[in-house]
Design goal:
The structure holds two protein chains of two kinds. By secondary structure, chain A is mainly alpha-helical. Chain A has 16 helices and three strands. Chain B is an alpha/beta fold. Classes of the chains: A mainly alpha, B alpha/beta.
Chain lengths: 386, 383
């Protein structure tokens, strides 16, 4: 049998000759690609529009909420990593577990919803900040085509494009931060008791939609390289998110709610602007590319989870395409979607759903590990690549 | 891979991928034809903006660069014109200016915004939101105020710069005013902070007492423009702070402060010091507020009546430095008293208190605080 780096399969799990496997095996990506995905797909919506939205209700406590949410998100990421390395996906798919199929169906719906809301945010940004006065359907079509196409191509397309773009995007963000020149007061992030604890959680949890952006990685198989790229990617990403949140409050204080896109603003206060003109374009490229990558990952994840639920990814793709193309044009005011996504009940539900998914998939990982100990033929999920 | 599957793969590739690309290209071409990007020749480059509010209307003045095309190989000439219009909103007034000029107003190169107290009281930081979002006003545009109407300041003729906004920008960036430059972003952050108080430099224009001597002879109609104190703004009130108090307030709250202080000695002689570095720490502990200032200065000039040369290490310089410290401490106390009198936290003690107390900070903290100031001045040899 010829073995290639990208198509390693466990021979113990090959179905008998003549039989078509019930579910296609999970896409196999390197942990370096996964690390790139975490950066390129997982942070843009946290560092662009979210700081201004959070500051509307939390003001100086914005950074503390970011730290709390990042900790919760990291917990979800640990569950994701454990699940993808455990081989539970292959096992539960092969056994056609009803619980797993229902779980994946719910995950598919969740990712479609998340992708749709992110799509609306991106459309609003493009039509309000950039191309004011342009017809909405043009922006929707131009944005939806690459998102659905990359998502439908699958995780390998997202992984390879992320791997190529992540260094460029990181370099651009770093350049903007290094050459930032503006009045800063880091003391604006204090104190920790800017809000009573009850108000902090009551207002803070409404932003829980931004949790669990990496749930699509549940359905990949990781091939580890020598370095822990997954952890490195997560570390760099969350460090950047917290840095931007801290800078946002230090720069604007209580004026932060007036900021629509923090990443663009950071680029605007660039001391190179005097020499080479306003540098917002550098951040615009970052925001648009990362937004497309992030939404594509959600679409790919929705498709894979739908495949595990009903046997085909097409319903998820159709649902997402319909929601984004038809829904955004049919809804009279897209800000209604934004307002709904920030309501406390929706936020609390998202918080509970994200933790429930993390717990459920972690339980599946433990179950698969237990079964591997008792039944050695059960396949493992990750393989080391030297 | 056998021929059959290779053919299938190729058909799929050409069938799906290129169809998608073709569709995207068609949409993009269509998209490119319907965008309405305004070219540079259709935009008015505004270099300075003035906003006033009176009789329930906003009066907006915009100083725009007019580039005249030249024929016969002559160089293009840039002149500046001020257009003024009224409107129920700032955006409405700017639209009227666009109609007057026949060009779309672009604030992307507007580095100076002149606002009056009445305009700020009308809308505070919300005044700038439409300018930033719709007209591309940079958030790092400098904010200044004036006592009269902004149009008079914008139309003043100065000899040292092409326009008043250029002069103001250069003067503030070189710390030639009694207050550090304040950007639109900084104003919004300050007025919305727990201290709820912002200060912006105040500029005054008057006919030049001595007209400049130009190559063609003595100039006519030139004005002197200078910074004279600052405008202190709260959410409900605004007042002018004089030059002396404005300097010490700026020293206490602004980073990178650099200015000159003069001190008059009881013996009849005076000295001038240049501030090299000012470290000011404002602390609030319960109801006790304090300012501890460490100033590093260099002796610029000392005029004594006895003809003795005053050096930085002389007793005279040390005495003058000590007197300077006492004067600055007294001015800081005056700032605090004025804060309590006017309900405006000039020294922004509320921010320091909020960082300790958080949401438990009382709303009437200014009336509960006692204030003390200590200033230590060290004279250095270098300037």
């Amino acid at each position: 049998m010829k073995t290639t780096a990208a198509t390693v399969r466990n021979t113990a799990f090959r179905p008998p000759a003549g039989e078509i496997p019930a579910i296609a095996p999970a896409a196999t990506i390197y942990n370096s690609q996964a690390g790139s995905i975490i950066f390129a797909c997982g942070i843009v919506f946290k560092v662009s529009s979210l700081p201004g939205l959070v500051a509307q209700n939390l003001a100086e406590a914005t950074l503390w909420l970011y730290m709390f949410m990042s900790a919760v998100d990291l917990l979800c990421l640990v569950a994701i990593y454990a699940f993808s390395r455990s081989g539970a996906d292959a096992f539960l798919s092969q056994t056609r577990s009803l619980f797993y199929r229902v779980l994946c169906g719910l995950m598919s719906l969740y990712l479609v919803l998340k992708g749709f809301v992110y799509f609306v945010y991106t459309v609003i940004f493009l039509t309000v900040d950039l191309f004011a006065g342009i017809d909405l359907y043009i922006v929707v079509i131009v944005l939806a085509v690459p998102v659905v196409y990359i998502g439908a191509k699958g995780f390998r397309a997202v992984a390879r494009s992320s791997e190529l773009l992540a260094p460029v995007l990181f370099f651009l963000i770093l350049l903007n931060l290094v050459f930032l020149k503006t009045d800063l007061d880091f003391g604006r992030n204090l104190p920790l008791t800017a809000l009573p604890p009850s108000d902090f959680f009551k207002e803070g949890l409404r932003y829980s939609l931004w949790l669990g952006d990496m749930f699509p990685l549940l359905f990949v198989r990781l091939k580890n390289k020598r370095l822990p790229h997954f952890a490195l990617g997560a570390g760099v990403s969350y460090a950047l998110v917290l840095t931007v949140a801290m800078l946002a409050v230090a720069m604007y204080g209580r004026a932060l709610p007036h900021v629509y896109n923090m990443l663009i603003r950071i680029a605007g206060f660039n001391q190179l602007s005097l020499e080479i003109g306003r540098l917002e374009w550098a951040a615009l490229f970052v925001v648009v590319v990362m937004a497309v990558e992030g939404m594509s990952l959600a679409v790919a994840g929705a498709g894979e989870s739908c495949r595990r639920a009903v046997g085909s990814p097409v319903p998820a793709f159709l649902l997402f395409a319909t929601a984004t193309v038809v829904g955004t044009i049919a809804i009279p005011t897209l800000h209604e979607v934004v307002d709904f996504s920030l309501t406390p009940p929706f936020g609390y539900a998202c918080f509970g759903i994200a933790l429930a998914f993390a717990a459920a998939f972690a339980a599946c990982a433990l179950y698969a590990r237990h079964r591997r100990k008792t039944a050695p033929d059960t396949p493992s999920g990750g393989e080391r690549h030297e | 891979m056998n021929k059959c599957s290779a053919k299938k793969l190729r058909d799929r590739f050409f069938g799906a991928k290129w169809l998608v690309f073709l569709a995207a290209a068609v949409v993009l071409v269509f998209f490119g034809r319907v965008t309405d990007n305004k070219s540079l020749s259709q935009s008015a480059i505004v270099v300075g903006l003035g906003i006033d509010y009176a009789d329930s209307q906003f009066e907006v003045s915009a100083e725009a660069a007019i580039i005249s095309a030249a024929a016969g190989g002559a160089e293009a000439v840039t002149t500046y014109a001020v257009y003024t219009a009224q409107g129920d909103t700032v955006s409405g007034a700017i639209d009227t200016i666009s109609q007057q000029m026949g060009l779309f107003v672009s604030l992307s190169h507007c580095n100076v915004v002149i606002v009056t107290k009445s305009a700020l009281l009308a809308e505070q930081e919300k005044l700038f939101s439409p300018l930033i979002e719709t007209y591309a006003l940079p958030e790092q545009a400098i904010l200044v105020s004036c006592e009269g109407d902004p149009e008079s300041l914008l139309t003043a003729k100065v000899a040292s710069a092409a326009t008043v906004p250029f002069y103001i920008q250069a003067a503030l960036q070189q710390n030639l005013g009694s207050s550090a430059p304040v950007t639109v972003k900084d104003y919004a952050a300050a007025i919305l902070s727990p201290a709820a108080c912002a200060r912006i430099p105040l500029f005054v224009a008057a006919e030049a007492a001595n007209q400049p001597q130009l190559p063609d002879g003595e100039g006519k109609g030139y004005s002197d423009v200078w910074a004279d104190g600052c405008l202190v703004m709260t959410q409900t009130d605004g007042f002018v702070l004089d030059d002396e108090l404005s300097r010490v307030a700026s020293m206490a709250t602004d980073a990178d402060f650099s200015d000159r202080f003069s001190v008059a000695m009881p013996e009849g002689w005076s000295a001038e010091f240049l501030v090299l570095k000012a470290d000011c720490e404002l602390t609030v502990d319960g109801t006790v507020a304090g300012a501890e200032v460490a100033l590093s200065v260099s002796l610029v000039q000392a005029e004594s009546g006895d003809g003795q040369k005053t050096t930085p290490s002389s007793e005279g310089a040390r005495a003058a430095a000590e007197k300077l410290g006492e004067d600055i401490a007294e001015r800081l106390r005056m700032c605090f008293e004025l804060s309590r009198e006017r309900g405006a936290d000039i020294l922004r003690l509320g921010n320091a208190l909020f960082r300790k107390e958080g949401y438990a900070m009382p709303a009437d903290y200014l009336s509960r605080l006692t204030f003390s100031a200590s200033v230590e001045v060290t004279v250095h040899e270098s300037s």
